[in-house]
Amino acid sequence: MEASISDFCVEMRNIHKFYGTVHALKGVDLQVRRGEVCVAIGPSGSGKSTLLRCINQLEGISTGRVFVKGELQGFVERKGRFHPLSPGRVAAQRRSTGMVFQRFNLFPHMTALENVMEGPLHVKGWARARAKAKAIELLKRVGLDGLGSRYPAHLSGGQQQRVAIARALAMEPEVMLFDEPTSALDPELVGEVLDVIKDLARSGITMVVVTHEIGFAREVGNHLVFMDQGQIVEEGHPKTLLANPKNPRTIAFLSKVL
Ligand code: ADP
Ligand code: MG
Predict the structure, then answer these.
(1) Strands 231-236 and 223-228, how do they pair?
(2) Distance of CA 181 from the midpoint of ligand 2 (Å)
(3) pLDDT above 50 (res 4)
(4) How many whole angstroms separate alpha carbon 232 and alpha carbon 150?
(5) Between the CA of residue 35 and those of 132, 179, 239, 250, what are the distances in Å?
(6) Fewer CB under 10 Å: which end of the chain, C or N?
(7) pLDDT at residue number 128
(8) Given CA atoms 196, 8, 229, 64 in this order, what sign does their dihedral have?
(9) pLDDT at position 160, please?
């Protein structure tokens, strides 16, 4: 039997992804260890969002395999053949990953507290009191104590993104995926969101963070992945890779952003 139970929280094996004729991921192999902060950087269009979306099954992969905590995602293997899982099983698997987007995607007609309670209440089936207690605790954790009754329109972008992080955490995922979580923010609000993500990193949650914040990658990351044209071109420890990139494409990219 093929080894799939491992230390890896996320494992991608030879992933290809096509959108019609666009070959967005060209044989990606990625291993993210438990508790690791994996940071993905690279030019626009290199496949970073697609990588995250394939991990949490927002997109179906074309070929290859994705494992989360050793469990094959989206398929079941029987007698050497792969069969797609039912939508219900896929939905259950997707709960092991929490996704935070560039645009916060909060429900505008719900307060911050209700946004965070929504998943536990309606997906996990928790009692209202339990979901509320959890949401209050999480809002406190992201520095929004006392702002639970505000609607998204009455929160700053940085505050909305922190609600979005709390909402993802409320589902108690195994791994958190961040897709350029600070790119839509005014510069003065970037720090407060990065601080929350740093705090989560220190608490040991496994995460994959797509970002242009190279300082964040260096300080918080322990695995840096550089993507270009649908491939992982180079990876390693951020401090090593940023100080001494080897691949010409990495060197060219870093010379523009550093
Ligand atoms: P990044 O996040 O690094 O900017 P993406 O993963 O968004 O890159 O995109 C990778 C490639 O796939 C790009 O060429 C992009 O135009 C294409 N792409 C992304 N999403 C879609 C889609 N839904 N339909 C068609 N092409 C897409
Ligand atoms: Mg993207």
Answers:
(1) antiparallel
(2) 10
(3) no
(4) 41
(5) 27, 18, 18, 26
(6) N
(7) 97
(8) negative
(9) 97
With the most atoms of ligand 1 within 8 angstroms of its CB, the residue from 15, 16, 50, 178 to mutate is 50
Q: How confident is the model over 175-186, as pLDDT tens digits?
A: 999 999 999 999
Do 167 and 115 touch, CB atoms closer than 8 A? Answer: yes
- List, for residues 65-111, the tens digit of each pLDDT value: 999 999 999 999 899 899 999 999 999 999 999 999 999 899 999 99
Give the whole-angstrom CA distance, residue 144 versus residue 141: 7
Strands 81-84 and 75-78: antiparallel
Distances (CA, A) of 26 to 12, 158, 212, 241: 12, 34, 22, 22
CA dist 166 and 173 (Å) reads 11
Distance 50 CA to ligand 1 centre (A): 6
* pTM as predicted: 0.95
Question: Is 19 touching ligand 1 by the criterion CB < 6 Å?
Answer: yes
CA atoms within 13 A on the CB side of 256: 10
Ligand number with the minimum distance to the CA of 180? 2
